[in-house]
Amino acid sequence: MIEIDLDELVENLMQCRRCGICRNAVYEDRGFDGVCPVWRNSSGFETSFMRGRIQVALALLDGTLEKTPENAESLFTCTLCGNCTEICAAEFDPTECLEKVRAVLNDIPNDVHDTIAEKIMKYDNPYEEDNKIKRNWVKEVGFDVPTTGEVLYYTGCTAGMRLPNIAKSTAKILKAAGIDFAVLEEEPCCGSVMLRTGRVEDAQKNAEKFVEVIKNSGAKKILVTCAGCLKTLRNDYPKLGLELPEILHITEALQEIVQGKKLKLKPLGKGVKVTYHDPCHLSRAAGVYDDPREIIRSIPGVELVEMETNRNTAMCCGAGGGLRSYDAELSKRMAADRVKSAMEIDAEIIATACPFCENNLEAGAKQIESKIRVVDVVDLLAESLK
Questions:
Q1: Neighbour tally for 208: CB within 10 Å
Q2: Across the chain, what does the average pLDDT equal?
Q3: Which of 108, 125, 144 is the last residue in one of the domains?
Q4: Same domain, yes or no, for 286 and 377?
Q5: Residue 243 resides in a domain
Q6: What is the pTM of this model?
Q7: 204 touches 240 (CB < 8 A)
Q8: Are 319 and 363 contained in the same domain?
Q9: pLDDT of the residue at 1
Q10: How many distinct helices (H) and strands (E) make up the chain?
């Protein structure tokens, strides 16, 4: 179980110098121009960026503010993207601290996140649907996929239930590369959203069940396509005192295959401009920046172009940290803002490496009536297979 030292947490929060650099810092040499995407796409009040959130957190923790859903609202209008942590001059991690604050204050009612946690515990997914449909896409790939094996592809809730094309593309590529893999008969949720929104006790129970399922599967390596799943399984489970086999994002696993030219690829066109959106949980949280880009560069006929903010300075798409469920309109405005960045460099395609990002960026593009195409990196690679 994650143990949170309240005194240490408060001491860390007090490290905030209230300089405001987390609001609208402009550091040209690092690619920052408006570091907080929530602040840029909301009312612009003090509580719409980390400096203000920290003051609200301290007031709730010491009792100055009454613990009500209204007073705690600003704690949840944040994606925990980590951009403020990248730029913070103080010696603490504001993103990690806010996540811990959510856990400490989880006795404050939050209908949206409480309901999601209940759904995951009941249905093994946040969508309140029959969990068996996560494997429905397997029927469409044209070959048998076993339910046990040393290499396990963990589809995840969003790819399995909302964007199955990502799962089918992944399977197609692994098959073409000659990699034997399995997909569980019934996948438990990784529990990422419960951890991000402070529901740590439910997350612990869910994680213990997850680990038991993986243990029984005999898997020695787990491949994931969701950046949130990667952060949860690789970074968070050890903090919960739980062990899993090696965890790899699919782009990490495929980069070596692509470099070794183990796949026969055809051109997608000539000079197709593709920009890559760095998912926060894959980039800043896991340090995976180059692998997805190398995969894109390997596709004949594709030109990789970069948005103004990219890699560790990339702006968040707005999907993470529970924001999409808590404030969908703010989340979509952030996504639209990111789409505009891609349009400014005349990109035809935004490729990303997370179904949550893809889903939200598509919503953002629709909001501003942009015709830019949003896809996962594995979809692009699968399209180019001969």
A1: 14
A2: 95
A3: 108
A4: yes
A5: yes
A6: 0.95
A7: yes
A8: yes
A9: 66
A10: 19, 9
Task: For residues 66 and 234, give the distance between their C-alpha atoms in angstroms, rounded to a whole number.
Answer: 36
Number of domains in the chain: 3
Whether residue 155 sits in one domain with residue 85: no
Element (H, E) at 338: helix 328-344
Beta strands in the chain (DSSP E): 26-27, 32-33, 151-154, 221-224, 246-249, 272-276, 302-305, 349-352, 373-376
Token digits of residue 53: 């959130």
CATH number at residue 90: 1.10.1060
The end-to-end CA distance of the chain, in Å, is: 48
Q: How far is CA 179 from CA 143, 163, 176, in A?
A: 13, 23, 8
CATH code: domain of residue 238: 3.40.50
Strand partners, 27: 32
Give the tens place of pLDDT for each residue, 69-107. 999 999 999 999 999 999 898 989 999 999 999 999 999
Sheet holding 246-249, edge to edge: 151-154, 221-224, 246-249
Beta bridge partners of 304: 274
> What count of residues does the chain have?
386
Is 361:353 a contact under the CB 8 Å cutoff? no
Cα 110 to Cα 221: distance, rounded to the nearest angstrom: 36
Query: Domain range holding 272?
Result: 264-383
User: What proportion of the chain, given as a percentage, has pLDDT over 90?
Assistant: 90
Phi/psi at 49 (nearest 5 deg)? -145, 175
* SS3 track for 62-86: HCCCCCCCCCCHHHCCCCCCCHHHH
Which of 192, 220, 255 terminates a domain? The answer is 255
